[in-house]
Design a protein that fits this description.
Helices cover 47% and strands 10% of the residues. By secondary structure, the protein is α/β, with parallel strands linked by helices. It folds into two domains: 3-19 and 103-229, 3-Layer(aba) Sandwich (Rossmann fold), CATH 3.40.50; 21-100, Orthogonal Bundle (DNA polymerase, domain 1). It has a six-stranded parallel beta sheet. The longest helix has 22 residues, at 79-100. It is elongated. The termini are close together. Bound molecules: magnesium ion (MG). Magnesium ion is lined by residues 12, 14-16, 186-187, 190.
């Protein structure tokens, strides 16, 4: 890996820089358990657990997760209640983030340190509207010259991943042609976005998607941890 060959490096956030899923899982649990404790209508009000998360919520848009969980418990799920609880989950995310913080993957910090030493411009490209808050909580906001969050994408009218537009915009802000920029992604849709944007190098980070799926989606290389991308001492940049 010759980092000096590239003019910019673009990181997805959740699952690449920070294990943000932990914060989301805690927020879902706090929101649903406070709702269940106060619900006296029909349905099963046994406490919400991680098993509910994996069965009903994981990977879905927020409101769909709320609707499917309520339905799984036989609790009526009119749109009003779905939206209210979905919004409460978003509030809970910010409360948990501020209270518990979030620690970046140690291997990712090693790579960020290495790239800072080389002076390569760095950016975050995330579908999440919370991206700046997560970076702030992890103490890494000052490492990136640009953060293309979900909010920025909406403001600029950029379609989300798997469309390449948010990554292309990030490269542009950093003054790099996509062919001279690197994308790091843990999600199939994000790897697809990097491949569709004809980036110089698309690195898949396997946090569970699997080497085969990330490779099929267009990753040039797949690593399990970003520390693998830090050249050994004395091996050059
Ligand atoms: Mg991700």
């Amino acid at each position: 890996m010759i980092w000096a060959d590239y003019d910019a490096v673009l990181f997805d956030l959740d699952g690449v820089v920070t294990p943000t899923a932990i914060v989301h899982m805690r927020a879902w649990s706090e929101m649903f358990n406070s709702f269940l404790a106060s619900w006296d209508g029909e349905g099963d009000t046994a406490p919400y657990t991680d098993a509910d998360y994996y069965a009903q919520v994981d990977g879905k848009p927020r409101y769909d997760g709320v609707r499917d969980f309520l339905t799984s418990r036989g609790i009526p799920a009119p749109e009003e209640r779905v939206v209210e609880l979905g919004d409460r989950k978003n509030d809970a995310f910010n409360v948990v983030l501020e209270r518990d913080g979030v620690e970046a993957y140690p291997g990712s910090v090693l790579l960020l340190d290495h790239l800072r030493g080389l002076g390569v411009p760095l950016g975050v490209v995330s579908s999440s509207a919370n991206a700046p808050a997560v970076l702030q909580a992890a103490g890494l906001l000052d490492r990136f010259q640009t953060v293309v969050s979900g909010t920025v994408a909406t403001e600029l009218g950029l379609p989300g991943k798997p469309a390449p537009d948010t990554f292309v915009h990030g490269a542009e802000v950093l003054g790099a042609a996509p062919a001279k920029a690197v994308v790091l992604e843990d999600a199939v849709s994000g790897v697809r976005a990097g491949a569709a944007g004809h980036f110089g190098l698309v690195i898949g980070v396997d946090r569970g998607a699997g080497v085969d799926r990330l490779t099929e989606a267009g990753a040039d290389v797949v690593v399990a941890d970003l520390a693998e991308l830090v050249p050994a001492e004395g091996a050059g940049a």
